[in-house]
Amino acid sequence: MPLDQSFVGRSWPPTEPYLVGREKIREFARAIGATDAEYHDPEAARALGYADVVAPPTFPVAITMPASREVVADPALGVDYSRVVHGDQRFAYTRPVVAGDALVCVNTVEEILSRGGHEFLTTRTDVTTEAGEPVVTVWSKLVVRGDS
Amino acid sequence: MTVELEPQTFRVTRADLVRYAGASGDFNPIHWSDRIATGVGLPGVIAHGMFTMALVGRAVTTWAGAADAVVEFSVRFSRPVPVPDTDEGTDVVVSASVKEVTDEGHTRLSLTATCNGDKVLSMAQALIRKR
């Protein structure tokens, strides 16, 4: 079933703030094998100019993937999640995420394409502080595989 | 002139996928259940695309010298990374070449990740801030 094209260009209200915890950054860094001190030790991070331990570059997906569920899981859009594979991923950083950040996500559907029997859904999530200071913009392209 | 950076190899086991699932919140069963992975036509359990991208991110931050040096980072997941249920798991090899230096002085890296000799990413690149 094709995705509902009327979703293209639509944005959702800001999500509730996600409070970035020091232990969550440490857990994520351990899970990807990132052992450098700035991911684990607040003193080492401050010595390098960060406010607290800094998150590895792909950490924002731990925030944006759950946040974008409000789009992807909307029955009206028509995504069959059992047929979804991750197509593309892109980050554009204003600054890195650090422990203590309270981050708000605004989701937008940028593009819906139908090609070769598959559907392609591109979402953009603008991640900012509660005051609206930009932090990172995250694009994900999901592929909903066709029946063939 | 093309500058090649020293390739970096990352070992990936099932335990790594379980740990990444917990840390990232991505519990899609194709990353931990052979039954469900083969049921949707995969060769078996595969790594999270975002886990592979995280390993590439480690290589990028190592080359860049700092976590905050990365301005942009993008990949296309072109092939799955199968992770066998063995002690050895599999290896992902990440390499990079310097593609250009932009007008603002940023360095654009063209990135490659391979598993069993196959390229698992395409159009992968990172833009690195001058330090």
Automatic annotation (TrEMBL), chain A:
Superkingdom of source: Bacteria
Pfam families assigned: FAS1_DH_region
InterPro entries: FAS1-like_DH_region (IPR039569), HadA-like (IPR016709), HotDog_dom_sf (IPR029069)
Residues in FAS1-like dehydratase domain copies: 7-137
Family (UniProt): Belongs to the UPF0336 family.
HAMAP family from the UniProt entry: UPF0336 (MF_00799)
Protein name per the record: UPF0336 protein BC793_115119
Automatic annotation (TrEMBL), chain B:
Entry protein name: Acyl dehydratase
GO annotation, biological process: fatty acid biosynthetic process
GO cellular component: fatty acid synthase complex
Domain MaoC-like: 8-107
Organism this protein belongs to: Actinoplanes xinjiangensis
Family: Belongs to the enoyl-CoA hydratase/isomerase family.
Gene Ontology MF terms: fatty acid synthase activity
Pfam families from the UniProt entry: MaoC_dehydratas
